[in-house]
Amino acid sequence: MRNRAKTALAGTLVAAIAALGPLGGTAHAGDSSLYAPSDLVLTIAHGEDASSVAPERAVTLTCEPRATGTHPSPQEACVLLGDAGGDVDAIAPPAEPELCTYQYDPVVVTIRGVWQGQRIEEERTFGNECVMRAETGAVFDF
């Protein structure tokens, strides 16, 4: 009889805890989804288009909920991309532009991934690495 009482009590406690579990102070999945994800892979390669060359350098960049990734300056890159709406062509040039030669040594950059919840895949070719850095700032400075 004593064992039945213990078993019944244990069963009641387990049921009560299970019923109250969701009411506890646990974090809800909805709390972390209040932002649109921005997870990108950026690449640089020498050549005129990405389909004909292999990437020489690549980094990851996550801008939401905070700037992280293998990019050496994730915060600065995220600010520039944010101001440009994720569009490489819309990145504002730096206040003091870099002076570049006209040497033609094409460099192609790509951005692939998700920007503010929308899938993006961009490619742009620059005349050389100096022009690329001058026009994209920290975004492709890796």
Task: Give the structure's gist in a few sentences.
This protein has 142 residues and is of the alpha+beta class. It has helices at residues 2-20, 74-83, 129-136; strands at residues 38-46, 57-64, 107-115, 118-126.
Order of strands in the sheet with most strands = 2-1-3-4
Instruction: Return the CATH topology.
Output: Subtilisin Inhibitor
Helix content: 25-40%
Distance between the termini: 74 Å
Count of DSSP H/I helices: 3
The level 1 CATH classification is Alpha Beta
Strand content: 15-25%
Q: What ranges have pLDDT less than 50 throughout 5 or more consecutive residues?
A: 5-31
What class would the helix/strand composition place it in?
Answer: alpha+beta
Count of the separate structural domains: 1
CATH superfamily: Subtilisin inhibitor-like
Shape, principal axes of CA atoms: globular
State the order of secondary-structure elements, H for helix, E for strand: HEEHEEH
Provide structural commentary.
Helix content is 26%, strand content 25%. Mean pLDDT is 82; it is low at 5-31. A four-stranded antiparallel sheet has the order 2-1-3-4. A hairpin with a 2-residue loop joins strand 3 and strand 4 (118-126). It has one domain (35-140): Subtilisin inhibitor-like (Subtilisin Inhibitor). The relative contact order is 0.18. The protein is of the alpha+beta class and 142 residues long. It is globular, with a radius of gyration of 25 Å.
